[in-house]
Structure formats: C-alpha cells, structure tokens
Design a protein that fits this description.
Elements: E1 2-7, H1 15-31, E2 36-38, H2 52-58, H3 65-73, E3 78-87, E4 90-99, E5 102-108, E6 130-132, E7 137-142, H4 149-157, E8 162-166, H5 174-188, E9 191-195, E10 200-201, E11 204-205, E12 211-213, E13 219-222, E14 228-233, E15 243-247, E16 251-254
Parallel strand pairs: 1-2, 2-3, 7-8, 8-9
Antiparallel strand pairs: 1-14, 3-4, 4-5, 6-7, 9-12, 10-11, 12-13, 15-16
Helix pairs in contact: 1-3
Length: about 270
C-alpha cells in the first residue's frame, strides 16, 4: 500500500489557490501509484479564523463543487482531505474521504480544543470511518483527537490497519510529533500517518514533521518543516498481527483478546 502524505502550506481564505495545489498533488501522487493521499486538517481553507462569521463565509458544502473537482483528479487513488464544511447554519471541521468512484464519506471532528477555528465549530457525534480500499483499511481522526487513546483504539478494533491523523500541529506541540503518534501505533499495533501542515498563518507557525509510523512504533518516514510530499510504502498485514507469540507458553501477548472492558467504566464517566 503506497501512501502519500501531503504536507502543504494552505493560505487562509484563499480557497481556489489551495484547491489548485491540492488538485496538482492528487494528480501527481496518483500518477506515481499512490493508493492513498492524505492532506492536513483544514487544507482547503486554513485554520486560524478569528470569528465564526469569517469561517462560515469561506466554508463549503460537502459533497459539493470542491470535492467534485478532487474526485475527478483521483485516478485510482483514495484521498483524505481536511475541509471547513457549512451544513445549513452549522460549521464543521471535516475530513472528507474520496476515491476513484467519487465521494465516499466524511467525518466531523468530535473532540474540539479551544483553538483556532475549532472554537466556532460544532462537535461531531459519530465515530470516524474505517474505509476498505482493497489493499488495506484506514481510519480517520483529526488532530487533537490523537491525544485520546480511545479514538485510535476504536478504529483499530473496527479493523483499521492505518490510522490517518490529519492535523495542524502548531509550534509547541512537539510532543504530538515526537511521542503521541508512536504510542498510538504501538499500543494497537497499527500504522499511524500524521499529515501536518507547514508554514505560518496569522502569526502561528506550524510544525510540519508529517510522518508514517509502523505498528512497532518505528518512524518509517518523516518530513521536515517545509512543504513536501512523503511517499511511503507500508504492509497492512503487519498491522493485523495482534497476537505476539515470542516463546510459546512462556511469553505471549494478545493485545485485543487480553483487554478487560468491564474494568474500564471510568472511560465513559462524565468528567465535566
């Protein structure tokens, strides 16, 4: 499974310019054989909006004309891209999944920090999708949600070989790039692909450092701080080996079977 991580530098409010770059990357990566192309959070419009009105003015319908254009560029590839969505009078931070057959599904960010445009978005109320594209299965979450182990674990339990984290890591969030993604990969034995953005927006500098992490927590590829596209080949079958038999009868680990959900009541208790 060949995965392209598109570390772009979207310009806030310049939807047409950002769309043109997205289309160019989709066409190029698809032409190079990518099975999956992953863009950052809010890649179409930017993130650091100062008001709900400003963000609503630039938000788009999903599906709609922008996603239609992306679908036409897909070729044989599948695409995950972050979009600010307008649904009636609701603003949503959305991950859209597209493919050779067109629009497939979308996910609304369910865990919202008090930060950037998330301050003005409504919370999603459905779990992230797990999409089977034949060569592998991927799940989707958005940025801050990588901090919640339950989100990645639930995607893995539903069969995801790869967790796609579309993100906007600002400077100061280095731990997300250095540790959290590796932990999420190791604890559920899945690949984790974090596609971050580069550049600066309204005085906020973003980390870049997009990366692909293996089910053993190894960083297989990592971008720098400037815009680039990482092409990484992964073997989804390695993410399906949840039972680790090191020495039969002496050293065996069953990562999913050994879970004890009946002991995890605190996970669903209201902490507000």
């Amino acid at each position: 499974m060949l995965v392209a991580l598109a570390q772009t530098d979207p310009k806030i409010g310049r939807t047409e310019q950002n769309l043109a770059e997205i289309l160019e990357i989709i066409s190029q990566a698809s032409g190079e054989g990518a099975d999956l192309i992953v863009f950052p959070e809010c890649a179409l419009q930017g993130y650091c909006f100062d008001s709900r009105a400003e963000a609503m003015e630039i938000a788009v319908e999903v599906p709609g004309p922008a996603t239609d254009e992306m679908c036409r560029a897909c070729g044989e590839a599948h695409v995950v891209v972050g979009i600010l969505e307008r649904h009636n009078q609701t603003l949503l931070n959305t991950a859209v999944v597209l493919g050779p057959t067109g629009y497939l599904t979308k996910y609304h960010k369910a865990h919202l920090p008090v930060l950037g445009v998330d301050r003005f978005c409504a919370k999603g109320n459905a779990p992230g999708p797990v999409v089977d594209i034949g060569v592998g299965r991927f799940g989707v979450l958005i940025c801050y949600e990588l901090r919640f182990p339950e989100v990645s674990r639930s995607l893995a339990l539903r069969g995801a070989d790869l967790v796609c984290n579309i993100t906007n890591w600002p400077q100061g969030a280095d731990a997300n790039a250095d540790f959290i993604g590796r932990t999420r990969a190791l604890e559920s034995r899945v690949y984790v692909a974090s596609s971050d953005r580069a550049g600066e927006e309204k005085g906020v500098r973003f980390l870049g450092l997009s990366q692909m992490i293996s089910p053993t927590g190894e960083v297989l590829a990592k971008a720098g701080t400037d815009p680039e596209v990482l092409m990484v080949e992964i073997d989804p079958s390695k993410a399906r080996q949840k039972n680790l038999i090191n020495r039969p009868g002496e050293y065996e680990l069953y990562l999913f079977r050994d879970r004890r959900p009946e002991l995890y009541e605190a996970l669903v208790m209201d902490q507000s």
